[in-house]
Amino acid sequence: xxxxxxxxxxxxxxxxxxxxxxxxxxxxxxxxxxxxxxxxxxxxxxxxxxxxxxxxxxxxxxxxxxxxxxxxxxxxxxxxxxxxxxxxxxxxxxxxxxxxxxxxxxxxxxxxxxxxxxxxxxxxxxxxxxxxxxxxxxxxxxxxxxxxxxxxxxxxxxxxxxxxxxxxxxxxxxxxxxxxxxxxxxxxxxxxxxxxxxxxxxxxxxxxxxxxxxxxxxxxxxxxxxxxxxxxxxxxxxxxxxxxxxxxxxxxxxxxxxxxxxxxxxxxxxxxxxxxxxxxxxxxxxxxxxxxxxxxxxxxxxxxxxxxxxxxxxxxxxxxxxxxxxxxxxxxxxxxxxxxxxxxxxxxxxxxxxxxxxxxxxxxxxxxxxxxxxxx
Length: 376
Fold this sequence. Notes:
alpha+beta
């Protein structure tokens, strides 16, 4: 799924859209010892509005349009469709429309037996239908028989007792400490997934979208053990891998201007793809072109292919995950944060035999610790 497809499903994740119905909700509680303590299925059509709204709010967060970072597509391996394997479990649940008690229990026990988490969690799974209106070549709605995209959307939410604190007791007219003992289900899921994916405005049962609240700390047990897919690098891992490639390839030629110029070039790639539906990527070929453009010596540019293959294999890196929003210069006891708009005002040089960081200041008045200082 790309950004446009995800946005279409998210936009229409509402009864007000006229093309969407959330038919049933399966809820479950898994305790800290990974025991399935409770599960129940309810019809959304007879659910109180206030309760329905909470489910909407929670589940909609899984449909994160930050595709490739917080919302990542995975392909099931061929054996995943065998009986009792993850894809087969999800497909059976989809076909049951959450109406078969045995299928629902098998699905929830599969999650309980395979999830790795620090505490208890609530699992919320919705069976939804979205009527896909046909579009013509100009991306306009056209006449024709509409297709119905039937899907499962799951949110996995942490459960805790909340924070203890002080409250004002109006009966005794005093401030007292309150201890909260109720188990509260967070409305912000830590993880989730969408099955099947919505690809080319149609259903694709061979892929699944995994959501994580923290792109730097995805729950690999959900990806590999529950969904049965092979984990791909997180955003932070992509960035660290890219930095490793740069250090190995550029070596001693890696300086402030090279780092800034490479970052600018990758930002251009991201900006040029804003209207594209697919995410922009950096592979070894494009990286060679970028390094050549910023003036890295040819003999070092030729090292890109073997170094890239050693670090990343054949997998391209998501361009947006590699861009630094600001430049941070660090030395023992000194840290300088530089916004992109001011990056050209900073340079390194050797002054009187000492390596120096030089900052051009157009206005001689600056602030130090909030106090105005004039440089003469």
